[in-house]
Prior knowledge:
Blueprint: H1 13-20, E1 31-36, H2 43-56, E2 61-65, H3 72-77, E3 82-83, E4 87-91, E5 94-98, H4 101-107, E6 111-114, H5 130-139, E7 143-149, H6 154-164, H7 174-178, E8 182-185, H8 190-198, H9 205-213, H10 218-246, E9 259-262, H11 269-283, E10 287-293, H12 302-317, E11 321-326, H13 330-340, E12 345-349, H14 355-360, H15 364-371, E13 376-380
Parallel strand pairs: 1-7, 1-8, 2-3, 2-6, 6-7, 9-10, 9-12, 10-11, 12-13
Antiparallel strand pairs: 4-5
Helix pairs in contact: 4-5, 6-10, 13-15
Amino acid sequence: MSSPRTDDARPTAEQMLARTESGARPARGRLRVYLGMAPGVGKTYTALEEAHRRHDRGTDIVVGFVEAHGRQKTIALLDGLEIVPRTRVDYRGVVVEEMDPDAVIARHPAVAIIDELAHTNVPGSPREKRWQDVDAIRDAGIDVISTCNVQHVESIAEAVETIVGVPVHERLPDHVIAAADEIELVDMSPHALRQRMRHGNVYPPDRAAVALEKFFTEANLSALRDLTLRFVARRADEQLQGVAEQQGFERLTEVAERVMVVVTEGQATKRAVRRAAALASDLRAPFVAVWIETPATERLPVDRARDVRQYLDYAGDLGAEIVRAEASDLPGGIAHVAHDRRITHVVVGHMPRSPLDRLLRRSLADELLVRMPSLEVHLVGPGPGME
């Protein structure tokens, strides 16, 4: 393993040339995140392999912080890479080693490898979270390659807690991961990861045995992998849509399915919510329940308003994100939310209409399809015994 550089070390002339060969560096460094479903899938190993590839191409790259967790193959990959010395923080009589972001900035490489983006720094550190240190390093014009497990993403953490029954203490705000320039999936089947655990490639044998029975069960890992794949798919869909808009296309056919149920005071709404939840589950899609406030809904009777609140609560219990919006009319409000959220399926409670009503005006489903022909609109009746 190479010796750590001192704080006053500076890149050589050759390193500076390699750094500027592709032109002027941006004012703010780029962020690449290797994302995985659980510890042990190989995120840090992959990041260090990337470090060696860049180093061999002449890029000025350093290790700002890597936690190898005693994994010998990961430790071996540190050999030949420059390691910025860590700082020591005294916390309640115990000296804890943390990354030294000031030393990384002073060294000013082209790229820094900084492991575990969601890490919480020991009290007494200049910043509470490692992602805040990474922000400061990127502000200095340094690219960062980091790692993260999906359970640490704030919007996913609660789902993970429900699935695996283990609290997620370290959380990464969604805006941090959303602002990453690149997210690369490091994937592994649940069976393969459990085999790695059994062979002692993740934890020591005593810890591995407990982990396999608790957190690293086949069911838990399958659920975590599903969450990770869906997260990355949504990210890819958002990037594709952004590219399409830059190229002048207003909208592309959606890559990821998204389901929305329209909540009204109508008696068919509860069945519509159930159908939408089932559809979202079948499609492994995000699920939204929308309530549109219009001038007409301001005059709802008390009992009808109570029904709406109960329907929204019911949708929330089934996993829906609740969205409330104001509009001058119901079809326009639904279409606006559907376009904004890039919804592919809209589920609507449908009540029988009189022949005169059908003659005088379009149905809600017809209005939606006129405004958004790419939608799939699902009509759900009130059920037996209801009119």
